[in-house]
Write a structure and sequence with these properties.
The protein is an alpha+beta fold. The protein has helices at about 20-30, 75-85, 115-125, and strands at about 10-15, 45-50, 55-60, 90-100, 130-135, 140-145. The two termini are about 25 Å apart.
Length: about 160
């Protein structure tokens, strides 16, 4: 028997340290939290996706009285990109969230398992890694590809 250790690399930034392009995307994901439809959880998640032609797309969680029907912010942005701009590639995504008091989370919000799987599919579809920005008021994580958040994932992409 052997043991294998799997490591993830996550860059940690302050807002001021981000590039101007990343600041724009982060700002848009924060703004997207205000568009959230979350009458059940009162947890407002915003996302913003950058396409390879510079187009930026909003996403936010869309809840439902039948809870399982709820759509997360990340997938709402990714699927909007796929539906509206099928010939453009997703380059990066930023995610932010506000709690039930309307306060932005201090620590970075992290995508659920389904959204991670959707990001793997997006990387497969577009043929490259997607840069992921996870916003918190104290720290921002910048991640070079969903593989860092989901090792040993099911995918045809390597
Ligand atoms: N949510 C997201 O929008 N993205 C995630 O990655 C995790 C959870 C939403 C779903 C639901 O509306 C609320 O957050 C509470 O779970």
């Amino acid at each position: 028997m052997e043991k294998r250790k799997i490591e993830s690399i996550i860059e940690v930034y302050s807002y001021e340290e981000l590039t101007e392009a990343d600041k724009l995307l982060v700002d848009m994901s924060i703004e997207s939290t205000n568009r959230s439809y979350s009458p059940y959880s009162h947890f407002c998640v915003g996302a913003a996706v950058l396409l390879d032609d510079g187009t930026m797309i909003h996403g936010c969680n869309q809840e439902n009285a039948a809870y399982g029907v709820t759509m997360c912010a990340e997938r709402s942005a990714l699927f909007t990109a796929g539906a509206s701009f099928p010939d453009k590639k997703v380059v990066s995504i930023s995610i932010a969230a506000k709690d039930e008091h309307g306060q932005l989370l201090e620590e970075p919000v992290t995508p659920c398992g389904s959204c991670r799987q959707a990001l793997i599919e997006a990387e497969t579809r577009y043929g490259h890694k997607i840069s992921i920005l996870l916003y918190g008021t104290k720290h921002i994580y910048k991640i070079d590809g969903i593989g860092q958040l989901m090792p040993l994932s099911f995918s045809t992409y390597s």
